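Duplicate of #3305? Posting structure anyway:
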């Protein structure tokens, strides 16, 4: 049976869907069979990030209303053959979909897959609660900014009400240089503030250097943690530490 993991965030723009896609791609690259369920029925864009926006013939509403089987609504991702996308209702975003209906669809797919990642809509609206109610584990995406942390705290509390097996956070867009200088809150401090384990750390997206899914070590570490139960964290500040790190910081300030 698949592990059903909801990936949520208190506010938009913190990179939730991007991280969900990268995690899915990594897990698929290691042989796991993965469904990424786009749980945002209003502002869905997982299909755009995966480059399959023109390949879906059906969506989750078609499954619920009996126009196709759940497997027929899955879109295989060309770059990751073990990764499948279950699109949200594209044609009628205002259509109400109950948590029970979504749960039935995902339970039907569960025996065929290893992971079902549910990309929840941002915030704590009906879409969030629908996604959380069908999951078994929760990952909350946040950034070190104060506004994001306050919203993440509310999201963590909401997920805990569902009594999931685990609720953890992933801290995104961590700038290593600012971390070394003490200009931003560290991921460890964020975990203490939110009273949950830090599952992963991802650097500022500009530091990814244009690398595609599964290639950056931050996403590799996240995926390995899910597969093996390890608790390793990527350290974005490492290259700014020590003698050579100091030289790098000085040169960056000189050239800026």
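Output from current build:
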């Amino acid at each position: 049976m698949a592990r059903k993991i909801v990936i949520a965030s208190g506010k938009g723009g913190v990179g939730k869907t991007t991280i969900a896609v990268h995690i899915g791609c990594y897990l698929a690259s290691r042989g796991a069979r993965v469904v990424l369920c786009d749980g945002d029925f209003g502002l869905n864009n997982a299909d755009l990030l995966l480059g399959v926006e023109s390949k879906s013939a059906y969506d989750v509403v078609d499954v619920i209303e009996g126009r196709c089987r759940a497997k027929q609504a899955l879109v295989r991702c060309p770059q990751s053959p073990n990764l499948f996308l279950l699109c949200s209702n594209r044609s009628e975003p205002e259509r109400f979909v109950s948590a029970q209906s979504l749960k039935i669809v995902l339970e039907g797919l569960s025996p065929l897959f290893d992971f079902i990642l549910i990309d929840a809509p941002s915030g704590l609206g009906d879409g969030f609660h629908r996604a959380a109610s069908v999951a078994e584990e929760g990952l909350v995406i946040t950034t070190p900014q104060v506004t994001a942390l306050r919203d993440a705290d509310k999201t963590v509390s909401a997920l805990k009400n569902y009594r999931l097996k685990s609720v953890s956070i992933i801290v995104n867009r961590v700038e290593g240089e600012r971390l070394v200088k003490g200009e931003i809150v560290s991921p460890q401090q964020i975990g203490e503030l939110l009273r949950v384990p830090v599952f992963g750390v991802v650097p500022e997206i500009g530091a990814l250097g244009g690398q595609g899914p599964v290639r950056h070590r931050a996403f590799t570490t996240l995926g390995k943690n899910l597969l093996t139960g390890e608790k390793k964290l990527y350290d974005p500040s490492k290259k700014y530490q020590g003698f050579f790190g100091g030289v790098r910081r000085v040169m960056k300030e000189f050239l800026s």
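Confirmed duplicate; merging threads. Residues 3-255 form a domain with the Rossmann fold fold (CATH 3.40.50.300). Confidence is low (pLDDT under 50) at residues 207-212.
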